[in-house]
Write the structure tokens for this entry.
Amino acid sequence: MLAKEVIELIESKAPKELALNWDNVGLQVGRLEKEVSKLGVALDPSLKVIEKASNLGVDFLFTHHPLFFKPINRVDGLVYEKLSLIFKNDMVVYSAHTNLDISYLNDALSSLYNLKDVEPLLDNGLGRIGTFKGSFEELLNITEENLTKPVVVGSCEEEEFKVAVLSGKGLTEELIKICKEKGVRVFISGDLTHHAKILAEDLDICLVDATHYHTEVYGLKKFIEELNLNFITLDF
Ligand SMILES: [Fe+2]
């Protein structure tokens, strides 16, 4: 299979155009015409992942987080180490980031909790908001069984309540305020900080920190299954 054919398939489900303007999605390194035979997938293009990929003979590495966020004007240190391995193995590196969050990862979370009347949480398409039918304890069980044992702030007594989910880094003060304004009782996401926790307590909104990693890997696994292409998983 050619690299560009793998990319076409990915983009048929996670169109590049959906990505936010600060993002850097799509081809990161490599040749579109390369014949690829071993596909690898990882959440992050870390050095460990790239080393593992190169040891296993992976020639197409698909990641959620991009290899490059900002323009680079110097190739040394970690960047040098990563790029030399990528070049040595003639590897293609391709990333689907906010376009995958918007097209897939957030919906995977809202399906996991079986949310009803689901809408995007933010105007840019990130996150989902919907009604959860069940107890807070049931919601925590779903989290622990499918994502991870979460860090929990507050509790909720209702048997039906508004829930927001956002894959990755969501538990910021800014987003907690938006959730509160939208009547959210429980916000499930990742990357909780101390000050965000205090704000949530003051605003009486519950937080479930299921980690940046687990709120993204959950949907990424499902996405890979749907592609049906035999990816080797490298960091999950
Ligand atoms: Fe992320």
About this structure: The longest helix spans residues 212-227.
